[in-house]
Specification:
The complex is a heterodimer.
Chain A lengths: L4 H11 L10 H19 L3 E8 L5 E3 H4 L3 E9 L2 E2 L1 E2 L6 H4 L13 E5 L3 E5 L6 E9 L7 H4 L8 H18 L3 H12 L1
Parallel strand pairs in A: 5-6
Antiparallel strand pairs in A: 1-8, 2-7, 3-4, 3-8, 6-7
Helix pairs in contact in A: 1-2, 1-6, 2-6, 6-7
Chain B lengths: L2 H11 L6 H17 L6 E8 L5 E3 L4 E9 L2 E5 L2 H7 L7 E2 L3 E5 L8 E5 L1 E2 L3 E9 L7 H15 L9 H17 L3
Parallel strand pairs in B: 4-6, 5-8
Antiparallel strand pairs in B: 1-9, 2-7, 3-4, 3-9, 6-7
Helix pairs in contact in B: 1-2, 1-4, 2-4, 4-5
Classes of the chains: A alpha+beta, B alpha+beta.
């Protein structure tokens, strides 16, 4: 059962003994939960989306986040129903074709993500085209306990606790509760 | 996130005890360190106009480190001075389609210019991909980790608000957040 933002923030404030939101306001805690949800999904990649990316003629480099504004990491790239091979370095393209650096083809073969901004779709084509990109999503932003309180978190239930743990650690640091912080880090991460 | 919101978040997390100008200084340092890493989280690309007869080109303004350079759809190989000299004894005078690029001055890791080899003999369009120190549209998970790294620096050095325990905790939290985000 999905958990709401307000319920999650309430649990967070109870954990750090700030129920009632005095030293830590409910709105600040809401923002921290929002950040932590995004961080967790960046790692787990369970909340996903997909969209079409326009491919220009003779071009292989794309700043994909300009077009796919809610994309964090690219998971798959398809041309039609065919999955392209993922490469993790520019040198991997050479495994496809020793002359890859010059290649212009009739179909796409492979892709590579650089940082969290750039997508290479290889080889180039002489005309414009499109591919379907699946990606891990930038989850919703929450800023206000009251206005966003009834909204369900985007994360699946099994990941909410991890986001809560990260939020708890952040607020413990802010509250200078280092003994508790260090103990919790040891409990959570060994 | 923007650099302004990241710095504001850092100040919120330290209850505004950080020195504003030092936080800004350390923010620049942290972004620079991440940009020089082997897996920079903030990347960007820029168009490159390759001009016949022009061998040297400037880094894009927001570039920390060049990751790749393309001429049309061709990837140019990075090379060192030794490789250039091994490839061609007359490399300085060679002309043709660009095959590779080198920092200029060659092998200077702080260089802000690069040169193409051989000297281009035709105009081409290209692209550079680089790690970026841009101040807007910074993906959120890295923004929070950056805020903690900034605090780790700000509170580690001698000052009237020095707090090394807090600094250590911030560094730990930054690492936890980066790992949690799969970085």
């Amino acid at each position: 059962m999905a958990r709401t933002v307000a319920a999650t923030v309430d649990i967070l404030l109870e954990r750090i003994r700030q129920a009632g939101g005095v030293a830590v306001t409910t709105n600040f805690a809401t923002v921290i939960v929002s950040h932590c949800q995004r961080i967790v999904n960046a790692g787990t990649r369970k909340v996903v989306g997909s969209a079409s990316l326009t491919i220009s003629a003779n071009t292989i480099v794309y700043a994909y986040r300009a077009s796919l504004t809610s994309a964090v990491d690219v998971l798959t790239v398809k041309e039609g129903t065919r999955l392209l091979q993922k490469c993790t370095s520019l040198a991997d393209f050479a495994a496809y074709d020793a002359t890859w650096i010059d290649a212009v083809g009739t179909r796409f073969e492979a892709w590579m993500q650089i940082g969290r901004d750039i997508l290479i779709v290889w080889p180039a084509k002489t005309g414009s085209s499109s591919v379907t990109v699946s990606y891990s999503k930038l989850t919703a932003a929450y800023t206000n306990y009251t206005n966003d309180g009834a909204t369900n978190l985007d994360l699946p239930d099994e990941d909410v606790d991890y986001a809560l743990n990260l939020a708890e650690l952040i607020l413990l640091i802010r509250g200078r509760q280092f003994d508790v912080f260090n103990r919790r880090v040891k409990e959570l991460f060994g | 996130m923007t650099s302004t919101t990241i710095k504001a978040l850092a100040q919120s997390l330290c209850l505004s005890q950080g020195d504003t100008s030092q936080v800004a200084r350390y923010y620049t340092d942290v972004v620079d360190e991440l940009g020089k890493s082997t897996n920079p989280p903030i990347a960007a690309s820029a168009a490159l106009s390759i001009v016949s007869g022009i061998i040297s080109y400037s880094f894009p303004a927001a570039a920390i480190r060049l990751i790749a350079i393309f001429s049309n759809a061709r990837s140019l190989s990075p090379c060192t001075l030794a490789e250039l000299e091994a490839y061609s004894a007359t490399w300085r005078a060679d002309t043709g389609d660009a095959l590779s690029w080198a920092l200029e001055p060659v092998d200077d890791l702080d260089a802000r210019e690069f040169m193409l080899y051989p000297e281009p003999d035709a105009n081409k369009t290209g692209k550079t991909i680089y790690s970026s120190n841009r101040t807007t549209d910074i993906i959120e998970w890295i923004g929070v980790a950056i805020a903690f790294r900034v605090l780790a620096k700000e509170f580690a050095y001698p000052s009237n608000h020095e707090d090394r325990v807090f600094a250590d905790a911030c560094l730990t939290m930054s690492d936890i957040l980066m790992k949690s985000a799969g970085y």
